[in-house]
Amino acid sequence: MRVAVVGQGYVGVAGAVALARQGHHVTGIERDATRLESLTAGRTPVSEPGLQEELSLALGTGRLRFAPDLAHTHLREPFDVVLITVGSPPTEDGSADLSQVGVALAEAAALLPAPYVVLKSTVPPGTSDGFLVAYPQLRDRYAYTPEFLNQGSALDDWSTPSRVVVGLWSQALVLPALRELYGPLACPWVVTTPASAEMVKYASNTFLAMKISFANEFARLCTAPELNIDHVMQGVGLDPRIGHAFLQPGLGFGDSCLPKDTAALTHWAVARGLPTPLLDAAVAVNRAQPGLVRDTLRAELGDDLARCEVAVLGARYEPWSDDMRAAPSRVVVPQLLEDVAGVRVWDPAMDAEHLGRLFPGARPCPDLRRAVEGARAAVILTEWPETIEADWSALGARMASPAVVVDGKNCLLPERLAGLPFTYRSVGNRMHPRGGATRAAGGLPTAAAGRDVLFGEPDDPPRDDHARPAGDPTG
Which pTM does this prediction carry? Predict the structure, then answer.
């Protein structure tokens, strides 16, 4: 099939590459001249494992190209399908900005001969029905199919999805075209109305947001020495009705999708007078999570805090995403700048200029060692391999004593930190009660520096320290 993918953001680039890999002839439509130039030169504008290599391969086959507009390209070689993957970013009141979607849909609806139009951007329930009023010619050529790509595994998720959700008005005409577009997939298809498909996307992301907030709520409850949040969540997640995904405590959901989509759904519900107590609670828990860093440092360092240097290790929400819109660092670093003598920030994916723009007043550092040199505290905000695999004995020796390490992603293995010259603090207590964890101010656990601490039993099943939330980077 000849396919146009309108919008070359995270989902658009991944989709264009994946469709070309399937054998379709794909044209990525991108209005931004700088981004278009980068794509045409074979450079992906987004961070995603494997995408750069696959983009180069797809361009080499001749099945993928890029263009600045839809209409003129369609006139030369008519498309069978127009896939719309433009953004629907949040406005100031939390509602979804559908301006890009509206422009792309209007351009697609005007094309003759008429292609199938497939919208993948996240939009509030009822949006497609509104578009049908404006463009009645779309009834027999339109489908809404939300994407469920995880940041860090987008290409695999495209080729082996957990499900395909399709909302349409004309099943007999559109469904065969979609099956040809997506190819043979070993997953269930949910075929419903466009409004229901739109709600599936919001319901899915809201449930994931609630699981994250659930884990964080229980991390606040599991602070006593006899409680271990890792073991609690492991026991909960082994229930097949629940599962382990998204039960990893941390500093809240900060990806490109969950904050935006929960805000948009809240706005949608309020406009209709519909209460959302579960959603409201999940958002409230999430909003408070980044404050745990400040609370922990205040409890540990007390009156010394104002004279301390603090090293922030990692600015991204997760290593595989360069979307910084809702990263906890955007809250944590400004809070620290208000409380401490100085803040250093290290992130291996960002240069000093980028970090300086994001965090005015903080000092960018080129590597881990220089970031922690002389600092009283180190705060981990990204689970970079460099941080997880670091020699924390050597790093701790470089820090000012008594030192504190705050693991905001619960990514370090506590058993490897036993006896090291700093206090380790995590989100919830992760230490085995035999290790003598003690309760500190603020309810979070602390291990006595220099003591041998046992964490878990030798035959404990492994934890998934790198479980991560899924996202909808399109919006």
Answer: 0.87
Q: What is the pLDDT of residues 96-150, one digit of tens each?
A: 999 999 999 999 999 999 999 999 999 999 999 999 999 999 999 999 999 999 8
Task: Name the 3-class secondary structure at 383.
Answer: coil
Q: Which of 222, 257, 308, 411 is catalytic?
A: 257
pLDDT, average across residues 46-66: 94
CB of 171 within 8 A of CB of 191? yes
Instruction: Kindly state the tokens that stand for 46.
Output: 């987004």
257 is catalytic: yes
Count structural domains, the chain. Answer: 2
Whole-angstrom distance, CA of residue 381 vs CA of residue 142:
42
In single-letter form, the type of residue at position 463 comes to: R
207 assigned to some structural domain = no
| Burial class of residue 220 (count of CB atoms within 10 Å of its CB; 0-12, 13-18, 19+) | middle
Residues 249 and 378 in one domain: yes
For the beta carbon of residue 401, count every other beta carbon within 10 angstroms: 10
C-beta of residue 309 within 8 angstroms of C-beta of residue 341: yes
Give how far Cα 352 sits from Cα of 212, 231, 236, 321, 363, Å: 32, 39, 42, 18, 8
Q: Both 325 and 464 in a single domain?
A: yes
- Show the domain range for 23: 2-192
Q: Which two tokens stand for residue 360?
A: 């005015």
One-letter amino acid at 21 equals R
Tell me which DSSP letter residue 76 carries: H
**Rounded to 5 degrees, what are φ and ψ at 213?**
-65, -35
Answer yes or no: do 183 and 235 share one domain.
no
